[in-house]
Protein 1
Amino acid sequence: MTRLLLVDDHAVVRSGLKMLLSGHAEMEIVGEAATAAEALQMAGQTHPDVILMDIGLPDKTGIEATREIKAKFPDVKIVALTIHEDEEYFFQMLNAGASGYVPKRAAPDELLTAIRAAAAGEVYLYPSMAKLLVRDFLNPDHSAEEKANLDGLTDREHEVLTHLAEGASNDEIASALVISPKTVERHRENIMRKLNLHSRSELVRYAIRKGIIKA
């Protein structure tokens, strides 16, 4: 029996998931949560095997929730079920420790396959998302030049880079490092220039490849 916790801020979505999953004898829904805080609390109370995690939660992102839950309950498997199909969210969820990534437009069988794979200790990626991972792996810019570029960052820029890659906003970084948001923005511009990066998704992939952020 696979114990499931549903995390989504829309009650209609949770209701639909319950209808879909309750028809499968090997699956038991042990709880629901509408926020990241509730998800962390329910994970401790219900001891799920697999959590279906939305990314767009009202208090924190599902990425942050995944990271916190995996830190406290490392054996729990988390499958992202989200409307987001862009690579920035995808790579950040994988880095946070997700065992699967399924868009909400996927067929029910795809979600069931992802849940079963996660419960078995495997990883399931929706085909269009898996292509992003393969493309990134085959990208020839995984080079020694990156290490040289990283060595060109100041200690403060390295700190800002880590926070940015973990999905923090400028205001959150400013608060954590006790600097102003304008200073964070200036560091961010310097980091992107020094590393020859052009978007946050490129920065996230870079940080994952370099081992700057870990699941």
Note: The longest strand covers residues 27-33.
Protein 2
Amino acid sequence: MTKLLEVESLDMHFPITGGVLRRRVGAVYAVSGVTFTLDEGETLGIVGESGCGKTTLGRAIVRLYEPTAGTIRFRGHEISHLSTEELKQLHREMQMVFQDPYGSLNPRMSVQRCLEEPLAIHGMGSSEERRSKVRELVELVGLRTDDLHKFPHEFSGGQRQRIGIARALVLEPRLVVADEPVSALDVSVQSQVINLMRELQERLSLTYIFISHDLTVVKYIADRIGVMYLGHLVELAASGQLYERPAHPYTRALLSAVPRLEPQRAGGERERLEGDLPSPKNPPPGCVFHTRCRFAQDVCRVEVPELRPFDGDPSHLVACHLAEEID
């Protein structure tokens, strides 16, 4: 497989300022030391609790934020620090689908104008060619060309998300980062949008990073899943592996909390997390999960665990000192 994206030791820290002179007094450590690769045509799911850094990671990858440290390579080229013109060119190949489709669409623009605008900004095609492309794309995402003159408020949530997907695809990107694209939709509409995204991926040879807090949705669409906690990537594995044999205590707790139709097996206990999520302004030393982990030992409190193969499997990575012992 061809590597499309390589992220290495990525940090995204936001400064906190205070006082009359607005001097830096601290930072929010939103993303810390995240490393992974992504193949062309693959879907990588990113899951975790609210505030774990999922959205910040996605925005840093598409360069809506400039990373504090680390490297991002897209198609072999370093993109961590680019000029305005270079970023403009990059965004033809990287696009984002946002959680709130209504908030990401200009309420004063018709659908036609919303979708034509990126093409006009990048100087792609004549006016007639742009209109033709928009009509074709609208039909591709399951909407009618008769709706192109309407405004965002005239559509349902599911229809607006289809428009958001169309806008992300109008420049024919290679990579799409979808940030909670179905969390604001009804369950029946969620499945329609997920199925649409899978169909578009096959038809247009797309690569996805799919960010969500819903492990059921991610299991359905993702080839691999990365689990984040307090800005750190704590586990990364193929979807089937992660669900069948979770290695990190946090992953086990997340999966245990997913509602099931079948009864809990005999002797099986639900994993419970004790305590509150620490603040990203003051993360714990050592393993960031040790304050809520019932397996934590002294080494966990002082030494940051590296993301390493679990039980010798290079395709299943875990950041836990005790993963094999508690398996």
Note: The mean pLDDT is 91.
Protein 3
Amino acid sequence: MPDDRTVEIRGGAVTFRVLAAGRGAPLVYFHSYHERSAWSPFLDLLARSFSVYAPSHPGVTGSTGIETLDDLLDLTLAYDEFLQALGLERAHLVGHAFGGMMAAEIAAVFPARAGSLTLISPLGLWRDDAPSADVLILPSDELAPALWHDPASGVARQWATLPVSDQESLAAEVESIQRRSSMAKFAWPIPDKGLKKRLHRIGAPTLLLWGDADRANPLVYADEWQRRVKGAALRLLPGGHMVLHETPESAARAIVEFIGA
């Protein structure tokens, strides 16, 4: 089981719940808002090669202080302070969807923080001719097909299944609302965030990972990111937007090989 602790910044005004496990060079993972758990088999696999730190974004269960953060820039600054509090001057940064957007922001605003950068179907760019799915407002019967290549697969069904008891089910619904509200504060509307103006600042070796059947964040964005991040490598894996959960072995192996190279 990963170590579970709380890291405070700004005199306790903002706290991050962070799970950590493994040995080796530090790797920080920034999660998607549509992950149900703070730790996953994908992170277990990475922890075989790295010291993995997985913070929860403010507003997600265990992390607090979202009301004190003004916008995406403020969250980026907060994560810089979080890394400082952990004593991580430099780390491999990995992020999925909004987490990928967050990792890219950190690598652009604080280039020295990123030893390498792995972005798994990151949000943050926009094309009117190929809009990303608005996963904040999709009803549940449309959200699962947008996120998963095969919504009938075991991992997708497990993700979609609410707890049996009324109390636990209600708590899960409340947390889902909190997650979407937190994402909306920092990511919506995506076209206005200006990330494309900062991507040229990224100097870390960068890997883009994409599911070849991603319906939430179309493959055209993989090309867009590769064009805007100098030297970025692109790797397509079988799966949808949640590819790191659909094929965790392939995703983790791709990252280990990339960093090792």
Note: The chain has one domain: 3-260.
